[in-house]
Amino acid sequence: MSKNLGNNTIFFEKGPSIISSASVVGKMEGDGPLSNFFDMVENDQYFGQSTWEKAESELCKRTVNTALKKANLSFSDIDFAVSGDLLNQCIGSTFGMRDSDTAYLGIFGACSTMAEGLFISSVLVDSGAANYVISSSGSHFCSSERQFRQPLEYGGQRPQTSQWTVTGGGSIILGKNASPPYITHATVGKIIDKNITDTNNMGSAMAPAFCDTILSHFKATNRSVDYYDLIVSGDLGYVGSMIAKDLLKENGLDISKKYNDCGLMIFDRQKQDVHSGGSGCGCGASVLSGYILHQMREKKLNKVLFVATGALMSQTSSFQGESIPSVAHAIAIEN
Amino acid sequence: MSKNLGNNTIFFEKGPSIISSASVVGKMEGDGPLSNFFDMVENDQYFGQSTWEKAESELCKRTVNTALKKANLSFSDIDFAVSGDLLNQCIGSTFGMRDSDTAYLGIFGACSTMAEGLFISSVLVDSGAANYVISSSGSHFCSSERQFRQPLEYGGQRPQTSQWTVTGGGSIILGKNASPPYITHATVGKIIDKNITDTNNMGSAMAPAFCDTILSHFKATNRSVDYYDLIVSGDLGYVGSMIAKDLLKENGLDISKKYNDCGLMIFDRQKQDVHSGGSGCGCGASVLSGYILHQMREKKLNKVLFVATGALMSQTSSFQGESIPSVAHAIAIEN
């Protein structure tokens, strides 16, 4: 059974177990500092397909298949697949999963998708509805650029606040408590909109949502920052991370000693010229599924709070002058 | 606790209760046969906003606020909001819910969204994670036409197999078992793709997914068609409904005596010139939240299987020559 601790925070009494995780990334991510922790680095940006959107579906397919293989499971063992991405109507996921022959739940949380998927999967396992659930998310630089910004051929100049959409994805299989790491708590975020309208400055738009969720999580759990070995945001990037730390300090919470951001971890920001860092559904998903869970299995990290943030606007809403509503979900993972 | 009966079917032991439901529709839906069952008919297609997308968000806001009012609850009583729609990045829902100050889970299941939302909400309530969850979905004819088809001003001719996207939405609040109707079972669909590529013939693309879910549901529950007073598809329309009935007959299941389709119920197909009938996230959502649940409260219907179907393609995937993957989720609602 799950227990609601207030402040949108759920405690999973049985602690669904992370059975397996897999990450697949593109060439640029493979050239970054976390290179050794990904299961697969694909140098062909088309992933052997004819379009970037089909490449993104192929990426999704590879992450889930790799996670299944690592767990020695097949789709017939899986009760539910929970997946989502940034593409219109989430076609990265739906086309990636269409041959899975598994009950499918599509979700949309922009770059918060991996955390939302882990929350829904945890409830499914903890409630007794499922033995195994696979959740996945991914993104592709080229399909995102042409959908949200400009055709790549246009060669538009990127402002320093902008982030670089990660070509990558992650997939995690949850099951009844077998062995650590476990998911012990989740804090589900509210939509927070502080009237940021600049789509080249997503970190600023998402930072307040991150702070709201972090404050709710610590209030509900009575934990201190020191409890965790790592508090990691999905992809606030350099600008958003600075704002987030400042906002939390104003609220009496200093997370700086334990804090990092997947968007800062996946690239060498200066050398790889990605301005404010990485972003996209696949950023948090691949860093969690690759690096972080590897460190947890090695006991180099034992208590991690993974907080994926999402910017919930579309190109249409921005064209219509709207600001960027954001959300952040926190998942506590413990050995 | 929830119990997995196999065949992707969950039995909710405590049977989450439908506390309240609300439906809001546009003028054309208000002129249709179900007119008296909707909570609100808005004659202004802009819903007082400056764009159709903002109108869709306003529609979402009105359905959730009406459902809350009817239940004598406010957002502060609600643990989670689960919502989704057809617009790119689900902006109908995210902008509609951004002032709710409630933990938010965005979902994407195209026109199956209402059923997916009810399933996730049921698990949240049944698992103990939530006391109250609100789920909602909606669609708008004008925003859908311009996103998926052509600018309205173009006046393109619609083939007879095409369906008319409903301007409308529905919202349902679930809580711990207080009084009927209850949600007793859910069958979550797999993605089914039978290689239909014609986006003006969605009913044909979705009918096989409907059949797959129906067959799984009856296999898992050992129920017969006669058990239900009504088996209702979300929006297969005239063409899809005919195909679905035929496909099920080929599989030894005759549902024709108990079967109807929300897309056929919401419009007078001939008089209102909607060709194959209604469709869109808001079709099943408003017919369920309005007409069907009204009949259940009046005990004119006591056992209903609501099966919402979704076509999971995007404009991009269709432009790239892809077929239409579909999904259908079944929710058993009983007094």
- Total of helices of chain A: 10
Shape summary of chain A: globular
What is the count of β-strands of chain A? Answer: 15
Mean pLDDT of chain A: 97
Largest interface: A-B, 61 and 61 residues
- What topology, given as strand order, has the largest sheet of chain A? 1-2-10-15-14-11-12
Unreliable sequence segments of chain A: none
Query: How large a portion of the residues of chain A is in β-strands, by DSSP E?
Result: 15-25%
What oligomeric state do the depicted chains represent? homodimer
Described by strand count, sense and barrel closure, the largest sheet of chain A is: 7 strands, mixed
Q: Give the CA-CA distance, first to last residue of chain A.
A: 20 Å
CA radius of gyration of chain A is 18 Å
Structural class of chain A: alpha/beta
Can you give the helix content of chain A as a percent range?
25-40%
Topology pattern of chain A, helix = H, strand = E: EEEHEHEHEHEHEEEHEHEHEHEHE
Blueprint (SSEs and pairs):
Two copies of one chain form a homodimer.
Chain A lengths: L1 E3 L4 E4 L4 E10 H4 L9 E3 L9 H20 L8 E6 L5 H7 L5 E4 L6 H14 L5 E8 L1 H8 L15 E2 L2 E8 L6 E6 L14 H20 L8 E4 L3 H14 L8 E3 H4 L12 E2 L1 H17 L5 E9 L3 H5 L6 E9 L1
Parallel strand pairs in A: 3-4, 5-6, 5-7, 8-13, 11-12, 11-14
Antiparallel strand pairs in A: 1-2, 2-10, 3-9, 7-9, 10-15, 14-15
Helix pairs in contact in A: 2-3, 6-7
